[in-house]
Amino acid sequence: MGEIRNFKSGNQDEPPPHGVMPRRLAAIIVGDIASYSRLMQVDEEGTHVRVKRIERDLIQPSIVEHHGSLVKTTGDGFIAIFDSPVEAVRCSIVIQQNLVGRNASLPKDTRIEYRIGVNLGDVIVEPDDVYGDGVNIASRIEGIAEPGQVYISGAIYEQIKHKVVCGYESLGDRKVKNITDPVRVYRVLPDADAVGRPRGRRENVLIFLLSAAVLIMATGVLWYLLAQPGRVGEQAAAPNVVAPVVSPSPQPPPREAAAQAPQPSPSLASSPTPVSAPSPSATPVREPEMIAIRGGSFAMGSNDDPTERPVHQVAVKPFSIGKYPVTVQEWNECAAAKACGFTAIGNDDAPVTNLSWTDAQQYAAYLANATKKPYRLPSEAEWEYAARGGTSTKYWWGDKLQQGMAGCKDCGGGAAEQPVKVGSFKPNPFGLHDMGGSIDQWVEDCWHKTYQGAPNDGSAWSGGDCSSHVLRSGSWKNDSRYVRPSNRDGYDTNVRYPTHGVRVALSP
């Protein structure tokens, strides 16, 4: 944003009159378009229209969705304030990740990319502006951010480091213009696993170089042996000489080999055949273990949170649902078949994470196409009915939290950096594992802030604004309030988040 425009610190020569200086502690977002002057010079009208569209369709709705207030736009940027530092950072991540999608098909020199700075400070709020050093620091942090990145102050980091599942790269203390004390700055990495990736890439390069060296040495030895006069003929003429290195070992029958190595099929990983039309010789798709649910009527929701009201009676038809959340191994078979958008990392038996709702739909569609069975995401009503397991208590095991029954921050077992393998906790009365804690789980329904007008037949609620969809279960990073079967939340449809996963359902 360059020089701060229309921002005023608290030491102005003529302070506002007494009585019009309401102060509040707020998380401040300052965003600014990188290379705005160049973009305007190339295409003034087109750039202006695109910027206004981004403000209208992305920035303003994201701020509202995360309970913030847009203070103003500045032509090439914006300022917003939030009561919650967590929501401010989440909003910043959503804006940047959505811009990545918008820019994907555009030439690099025409992309509109924002730099975003976030700070926590005591500010003066007026109807159309906000003032104070807290705003100035946010602006200075934005000024040193890279295009497409979110930089935050140490004050924000201390508030969110255990609440927003991100990676954080400390950039140290920075001296910023017109601010007396240095400011601790962090770069936000929306994918928490990104912190370890540079080291992984270096290790991969080292392994590649070592492998190449071994291959060169082996080639040299083979050339030397073959170059010896008569060596090969002498070996062939000796009837008692055995060459075990080149003797083929007996191979197990195909069925036995498959049983010995239950891994994603190499033919699926390399075959260009679409998943919707698997070849007859392809290895069958690994289907998730499913539990049949009889169906019935239950009281959905609770009075513990406004989003869970009103409690209403719902009749659910018979269906099946995954015994466990979808695992890394199951997801990566879909990725190998080119039907899912990325290859997951982690243990094969751990739940796959960092999924958007769109990703979850891709996996369900992959299963449906490959098996010709009606796999899908469960509806919100089906999920809660299955999670309750026929009970009506606060948790499926009773009204009080019991240690070791679910994977959450205060559920016992100590803090974890990642979800444990599926099935590590006791199943509910329906035989389902991890229906509370472990990972957040996408369902079919669009997000609605309450149950007013919700269907009562167990079907997915698809009406309204579907820019966000419903998540259930809570995760290993949340506390026990999120483990309740009635707990619900919403998140942006096309944005990946490190605690979000999926569990599939199957129609009769």
Could you say how many structural domains there are in total? 2
How many H/I helices?
A: 12
| Average pLDDT over all residues | 81
Q: List the uncertain runs.
A: 1-14, 192-203, 229-281
CATH architecture descriptor of the largest domain: Alpha-Beta Complex
Helix and strand element order = EHHEEHEEHEHEEHHHHEEEEHHEHEEEEE
Residue share in β-strands: 15-25%
Strand tally is 18
Share of helical residues = 25-40%
**CATH superfamily annotation of the largest domain:** paralog of FGE (formylglycine-generating enzyme)
CATH topology of the largest domain, by name, is: paralog of FGE (formylglycine-generating enzyme)
CATH top level of the largest domain is Alpha Beta
- Ends distance: 57 Å
Quaternary arrangement of the chains shown? Answer: single chain
